[in-house]
Design goal:
The chain is mostly helical. It is built from twelve helices and two strands, in the order ββαααααααααααα.
Length: 261
């Protein structure tokens, strides 16, 4: 049998307590989900940018992981606003916090798995690019780098541009694989020339690589935002006040018991 402790007999009738302390309903802080948590369409958008590689398994994994995080956050907001009338607000929020922690754990697992697949796929893209761009090393790499090092920036740019246009894999390998100090090119310059080569020789791989990089960024940011919304979503301050009241009640109960031996 359930005993209603939220009722009192007053003026010849039963009423819900006016100053109800058994279910202290408090106003909860407003929850504002970020754009990445408020929509499950981010995966679709990033995949679309990958063009012909939109269905790449790594991008599918990304979409799945992001959907788990976004959809889960939205469902938790719904749960927060749907309190079982048989439960106190304190119990409701405690359960909400438990569900939120479970959500974080599953989101972290999905994110880690997707990001690992993205990292592996980006590595394989580099290998595929090198193969399709006909990278090769016939032993002249050091000499090529020495020649490039002696050029000014304009000459270097023209030299590399010609190598890309002629699909000269030996020059591309010597320059793009070489340490910056050996060619006189900065890391940023090498990265830019690599992107230029990909744009001309393997544009589809460049699209996929950029989409994967974007996907990795979105996953990291979305999980970070899921962590950030936790205190507001689970009404941490309200729960703390309820915990303090509960501790007072336990102390009073113990004092009462102690008084009669």
């Amino acid at each position: 049998m359930t005993i209603r402790t939220d009722l009192q007999f007053k003026d010849g009738a039963v009423h819900v307590r006016d100053n109800n302390r058994t279910d202290m309903r408090e106003k909860l802080p407003e929850v504002k989900l970020t754009d990445r948590l408020a929509s499950t369409l981010w995966g679709q958008s990033v995949r679309k940018d990958a063009g012909s590689h939109a269905d790449d398994p790594a991008l599918r994994d990304f979409e799945h992981a992001h959907t788990i995080m976004a959809n889960g956050a939205q469902k938790l907001v719904g749960l927060r606003e749907t309190q079982n009338p048989a439960h106190t607000q304190a119990a409701h929020l405690a359960d909400l916090d438990t569900q939120y922690q479970t959500y974080l754990g599953r989101s972290a697992q999905a994110m880690d798995r997707a990001r690992a697949n993205i990292k592996n796929r980006i590595g394989s893209i580099d290998s595929e690019f090198r193969q399709r761009a006909k990278f090769s090393d016939n032993g002249a790499g050091s000499e090529i780098r020495q020649v490039v090092r002696g050029m000014d920036d304009k000459q270097k740019a023209e030299f590399i541009a010609n190598a890309i246009a002629n699909e000269d894999g030996e020059v591309l390998s010597a320059v793009l694989d070489g340490h910056p100090s050996l060619t006189g090119l900065s890391k940023d310059q090498i990265a830019n020339q690599r992107a230029r080569a990909m744009q001309q020789l393997t544009p589809d791989l460049l699209k996929l690589e950029r989409s994967l990089q974007k996907a990795d960024e979105v996953l990291f940011q979305t999980f970070d935002e899921a962590l950030g919304v936790g205190d507001t979503l689970t009404a941490k301050d309200v729960r703390a006040r309820f915990d303090a009241e509960a501790q007072k009640a336990r102390t009073a109960r113990q004092a009462a018991q102690d008084s009669w031996g």
